[in-house]
From TrEMBL:
Organism whose genome encodes this protein: Pseudidiomarina halophila
Tagged with keyword Transmembrane: no
InterPro entries given in the database record: SCP2_sterol-bd_dom (IPR003033), SCP2_sterol-bd_dom_sf (IPR036527), UbiT (IPR016830)
Family, per entry: Belongs to the UbiT family.
Protein's UniProt name: Ubiquinone biosynthesis accessory factor UbiT
Keyword Cytoplasm carried by entry: no
Domain SCP2: from-to ranges: 42-135
Keywords attached to this entry: Ubiquinone biosynthesis
Biological process annotations from GO: ubiquinone biosynthetic process
Gene of this entry: ubiT
Free-text function comment from the UniProt entry: Required for O(2)-independent ubiquinone (coenzyme Q) biosynthesis. Likely functions as an accessory factor.
Pathway(s): Cofactor biosynthesis; ubiquinone biosynthesis
Length: 176
């Protein structure tokens, strides 16, 4: 019961936080978070395909939009996150529930893509590289065990709530 309330409340809370936070602050947080979580991958060159190329990401139900790239700075690669970019090569749209499932590997990007929960448009080659990267990232190895376990439980509960809401919406459509 408590997890259900948390699942229902979290997207509203995050949407409010995104709306209130200055875009530069939100981007700074995302940049640092990515830099910490994916530090070893960045150093190993896993993100080199993003060098000087931009991907625009939108988490639709949170109202979160940002652009991400990888840039060389002082002989080291680092993430660069900005609120806007005029020259994004790939556009990615996903909702909160699908993003959680994707990040905890409860569902693969192809499944989300074919269910129209993950939209990738733009440069086909770069889009495939982004999709393949999403499929190989294992947060379980990058986060403290307890944190990852809680995130996975939360993702599962969020997916169940989302499915129930979709089923209810479809049944209302039939009634009309």
């Amino acid at each position: 019961m408590v997890i259900t309330k948390v699942v229902e409340f979290t997207p509203r809370l995050l949407k409010s936080a995104v709306a209130l936070a200055p875009p530069a602050l939100a981007c700074g947080v995302i940049e640092r978070l990515f830099g910490q979580i994916f530090k070893a991958d960045l150093e190993a060159g896993s993100f080199d395909f993003l060098a000087e190329r931009w991907v625009r990401i939108e988490v639709t139900d949170l109202g979160l939009k940002f652009c991400i790239s990888v840039q060389s700075e002082a002989q080291r690669m680092r993430f660069k996150v900005t609120p806007e970019c005029d020259h994004a090569a790939v556009f990615m749209r996903v909702d909160w529930s699908a993003l959680l499932q994707l990040s905890t590997q409860q569902v693969d990007p192809d499944t989300l893509f074919f269910r129209r929960k993950l939209l990738l448009t733009g440069d086909t080659e770069l889009g495939l590289q982004v999709k393949n990267l999403l499929d190989t990232i294992e947060l379980e190895q990058r986060l403290p065990r307890h944190l990852y376990q809680q995130l996975a439980k939360f993702a599962e509960a969020t997916a169940q709530t989302s499915e129930k809401q979709n089923a209810a919406a479809k049944s209302l459509t039939w009634i009309k």
